[in-house]
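Morning. Coffee machine broken again, so started the prediction first thing and wrote up yesterday's gels while waiting. Chain of 259 residues, entered below exactly as on the submission form.
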Amino acid sequence: MINTIRGWFRFSVFIMLLLIYLVGYMIRSLFMGRSLENGLRMRHSFAHVLPKLVGLDIEFKGTPHDKPALYVGNHRSYYDPGAASMYLPKSVIVAKAEIADWPLIGYATDLAGVIFVQRFNKDSRAATREAMAKALEDGYSVLIYPEGTTADHPTTVNFKPGTFATAIKMNVPIVPIAVEYGHERDAWVRKDEPFATHVALFLGKRRSKIKVRYGDPIYGTDVEEFRDECKAWIDKNLLEMQEEYGGVDWPATSEPYLK
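Came back before lunch.
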């Protein structure tokens, strides 16, 4: 019972904090105009304040690349980008198009330059790769999840090749990121579980543990070899972090995204 109350209270804190940041952004926009830089500053500050208020313990290992790169991570939950981008202030995130329709969150992510992709639409995926290339040309890094969906398997599921082809075309490195949670119910994979319900469950624990590891930049010339090398690094680090937790009983119930 106490966990449920705590979870919904912290979810309310999340919503209130988001509202405060959005109002602040709109007020600043009256004087400074709307810009991606202002949106990224808002996201960066929000990402650092939120964990302190809702009981998130986030441990980092490794150092992000100091030049534009493609950051590729495993995908367990809606919070993956929030944790992974805390030390990526000049980066844009690729996310599923459905998020654009979420109240408040959709507006906030749009302000922060999120590239929305319709995962089942070939033209949208092609447009996303073009937007990624444009962001890299403009000096921004890009954070993307090539599994295409969240998963509760011990290691990653299928990686789609488009991200790796873009990195080769743009001659930029891929920096692998591994994000691991301390409890198997921290993954949001059930299609019948509403977002708010899972957030309350996730935040209901006294402290929620998250580990984030940044790898060294990897360059490639062959798409399949490039993909396999990045996937192997992430899988290895996921297993190591699970061991550090004393074991995480991932149930492997999610279906890989095959489109």
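The longest helix spans residues 2-32. Going to sketch it on the whiteboard this afternoon.
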